[in-house]
Write a structure and sequence with these properties.
The structure holds two protein chains of two kinds.
Chain A lengths: L1 H37 L15 E10 L5 H15 L2 H7 L2 E6 L4 E7 L3 H15 L3 E9 L2 H10 L7
Antiparallel strand pairs in A: 1-3, 1-4, 2-3
Chain B lengths: L4 E3 L7 H10 L1 E6 L6 E4 L2 E11 L2 H8 L2 H4 L2 E6 L2 H9 L5 E3 L10 H9 L4 E4 H6 L2 H16 L4 E4 L14 H9 L3 H18 L5
Parallel strand pairs in B: 1-2, 2-4, 4-5, 5-6, 6-7, 7-8
Antiparallel strand pairs in B: 3-4
Classes of the chains: A alpha+beta, B alpha/beta.
Chain lengths: 160, 205
């Protein structure tokens, strides 16, 4: 009788070990399948767009004449429109946040995807729109606080 | 050409507009000037729908009373935050329009609510073209916000003349260049996405 019980216990233990091995194998195989789905081939076609972050560009104007805030804003938007087109103007959304007419320095807010194009627009403005002045970009920052700090501290003696 | 496009709001479906829509391969349109709830003219299904603009919740609630008995599709252009929030969670409303006048009320909170109640964003192209560029760039940012939350953006023509009708070949390209999204998505948004709304409201195409 005892022998039968021992045999049954041994059988159950061995069966449980075999089942554990099968479960482990299955787990490893399914993990491989899930890994396949995670690869680049199975990425969805329609991607979610990235969040648009803001960038602040500090610039200064070197000129003998005075510039009003509206004039500077118009010049920059005109430059954008002429150089990159209305499409880029809409996506970049350049906005003159601050302009100090005494220092002739200002801060422009733009979308982060257009920070390099904005510098190119400055060059276009210097060459084709403004003939008696030069717009010089000083620094690109991620916060307005930092931009203001740079605007007042960045080598003011050059302009005054 | 695929004969499967749907325009979710046409202001005046006169003979010329209908002929052009048929030529472009439109299968169904929604208009407020239809005689019956659902009718078929020259192979195009004309569904009776409504585009309401409302300034406050109270007036919107009054105008929505029993609206589904007469109209199959109801679109709302909210002109206040309260109206926008009410429209987002009301089951009679099928979509919320984003125009030049209500960009300020379409904030992340509104996007979250629209996601929760699965309401699509309707983009009338006729209004979009008239907006100044600063408003269009604001609309662009709103579209990016809504798409990042996986909310459908459906362009509608709101056309009353032949010039306003959306060409399904050029409109997805125009929108993808203007708003920087995938061309395929915009094609989906004028074919399958509005179809889902119509089918949900019991319209057989």
């Amino acid at each position: 009788m005892n022998n039968i019980i021992y045999a049954a216990v041994l059988l159950s233990i061995s069966l449980s070990i075999i089942s554990l091995i099968i479960v482990l194998q299955m787990y490893l195989q399914t993990r491989k399948i899930f890994r396949l789905f995670k690869t680049k081939r199975f990425k969805p076609i329609i991607k979610k767009p990235l969040k648009i972050r803001k960038r602040y560009i500090v610039f200064m104007i070197l000129s003998s004449r005075e510039f009003r805030r509206e004039e500077v804003a118009n010049i920059i938007s005109k430059g954008f429109k002429e150089f990159l087109g209305i499409n880029s103007l809409i996506q970049a959304d350049p906005y003159l946040i601050y302009y100090d007419p005494r220092l002739k320095r200002g801060i422009i807010r733009i979308a982060h995807i257009y920070k390099d194009q904005t510098l190119a627009v400055f060059d276009y403005v210097n060459r084709y729109i403004l003939k008696d002045a030069v717009i010089i970009p000083l620094k690109t920052t991620g916060t307005i606080k930092k931009a203001r700090k740079i605007m007042y501290k960045h080598r003011v003696e050059l302009q005054l | 050409m695929i004969n499967d496009f749907i325009d979710l709001f046409v202001e005046d479906p006169n003979d010329k507009v209908l002929r052009l829509l048929k030529h472009f391969g439109y299968r169904a349109i929604v208009t407020d000037k239809a005689r019956d709830k659902i009718q078929r003219v020259n192979g195009i299904v004309i569904v009776k729908g409504l585009l309401l603009s409302s300034k406050d919740e109270k007036s919107l609630r009054a105008r929505l009373k029993g609206v589904k008995e007469e109209y199959s599709i109801v679109l709302i252009e909210p002109l206040s935050t309260a109206a926008a929030r009410f429209a987002a969670h009301d089951s009679r409303v099928d979509g919320i329009a984003l125009t030049c006048r209500n960009t300020l009320y379409m904030d992340p909170g509104q996007a979250g609510m629209m996601k929760q109640y699965s309401k699509p964003l309707i983009l009338p192209l006729k209004d979009l073209i008239k907006c100044p560029y600063r408003i269009v760039s604001r609309i662009f940012r709103r579209i990016i916000l809504f798409r990042s939350k996986d909310i459908n953006v459906i362009p509608v023509s709101r056309s009353s003349e032949t010039g306003d009708v959306m060409n399904p070949t050029t409109t997805p390209l125009f929108l993808s260049y203007l708003f920087g999204l995938n061309k395929g998505y915009w094609l989906y948004s004028i074919s399958n996405a509005p179809r889902e709304i119509l089918v949900k409201n019991g319209v057989k195409i």
